[in-house]
Structure formats: structure tokens, C-alpha cells
Amino acid sequence: MGSVHTRSEEAQVRTSSNPAFRNLPGTGQGGYATFGSAGAYAEMSGPTVDPGRAGVAERPMTIDDVVTKTAVAVGTAIVAGILTIWSGMYGLALPAAIVGLVLGLVLTFKPDWAKAPLVLLYSAVEGVFLGGITGLLESVPNFEGIGFQAVVGTVGVFIGMLVIYKTGAVRVTPRFTKWLMGAMIGVFVLMLVNLVVSFFTTGGIGLRDGSPLAYLFSLVCIGVAAFSLLLDFDQAERAIRAGAPARFAWYIAFGLMVTLVWLYLEILRLLSYLRGE
């Protein structure tokens, strides 16, 4: 009966749209999370030992760990962004984007490295990147205050999706996950095609040129990023229920930062279209 129950649980596992969460301990082949039970986590990860105290089991992660680490990561990004805008060093946006991409890939594929120093460095670099872009837009006539509006919009979407998740208004089911993954793949493929075409023609295929199609695409991107938060919340809750060690709260904070950075950028882009009319 135990074997049948285990197979039944594994048949209902879900993947996160956020690639960062696919490598958390308790992740099976193909990127499917097996956080359905503490037993599954223990089977995949083995006993957890505090590296600082040999032979002493590390305490399990709690929701407070996730909230605290995520708040620190987001706060670091905000401070870095404000300092970048205040200093006027907008040229740091491009190198920060490159460094952020490298750090993001490293943390995604090396989850054991996701501790406070690297996660906070990633957050700071992304803050510089977002601050540089926001500062450049703020310096354009008629774009004053666009950064504040984007922050308010991002916070509003985050709170709204958290309420939706907690109330169960939208359930994170395997079908929902597959639909969202398909939508995300489609969005990134279109972004890539638009980027490649833009090297040869002005405006690419019209996804980022302020046209009605660009408005629609930005709204779709915001929607996909927003619903990705539901999967991120679900993965964090599953990790907690499975007894994941406290140190992985930093990894979950990193995963949420990835989604929030994308969401902020898309909201900022949409606001720039509206301000540019």
C-alpha cells in the first residue's frame, strides 16, 4: 500500500514555471517537484545536517524564514536601485544585466550555492540594473514618476496573487502548471524571435515598438509573470511541508526575485508605452 500511495503522489506532482525552483531538494527527474510529503523529500535528499555543527540535524524551514529572506533580498534590490538612480550612474545597467544573468544561471543550476552572500549579490546587481533603466526613463520628459508607479504596480500584483493563492481562487493543478509553462515558453520564443528580427529590421516583429500589438504582448507578459507567482508560492509551501532545511529559504527568496524582476520590467515597459502616447 505504501508503494501505491507513493506512486499516486508522484503522479500529481507539479513543476514550477520558475526554473530556480526546479532544483530545490526533493526534485525528481524532468524537473517535477516531489514536495508532496516529508517522506518524499527525505528519500530524495537524505538526512539534512547542519554544515556548521557536524552530526546535528538542521531545523526545517518555516514560512517566517521564507518571508524574512525574501524581504531582505527585495530590500537589497530596492536600496541598490535607489542608489543607482540617485547617483545617476545609469550606464551600470548593461554590465549589471550581464552579471545578473550569470549569477542567475549559477544559482539556478547550483542550488547549494544559494546562500546569503550570493543571493544578496544577485539582488543588488538586479537592483542596479532596474535602477539604471528606471533612471534613464525618469530623465525623459513626461516620464517622471514612472519608477514609483512600476513599484506600486509590482507590489499590488504580488499582494493580489498572494491573496488569490491563499483563498484558493485559482488552484495550482497539474493542468494549470502545464498551461502556464506552455505560455511562458511561447512568450520567451516570441521575445527571442523579435530580438533576432530587430537586428535586420527596425522594430522587429512589432512586439516592443509601442504599437497595439506591443500593448497586447506586454499585458500577456505581465499576466504570465503574475500567474508564475502562484507556482512560486506553491513550491515554497511544498518545500516547507516536506521539511526542507532552513538554509533553502535563501534559494526560494532568489526564485521569487527572478519572477519579481521580470514582473517589474514588464510593468515598467507598459507604463512607458502609456506615457509615450
From TrEMBL:
Region (Disordered): 1-25
Keyword Electron transport attached: no
Pfam family, one: BaxI_1
Biased composition regions of type Basic and acidic residues, renumbered to the chain: 1-12
Record keywords, A-Z: Membrane, Transmembrane, Transmembrane helix
Membrane-spanning ranges: 66-86, 92-109, 116-134, 146-167, 179-201, 213-233, 245-265
Transmembrane helix as UniProt keyword: yes
Protein name: Uncharacterized membrane protein, YccA/Bax inhibitor family
Species the sequence originates in: Pseudonocardia thermophila
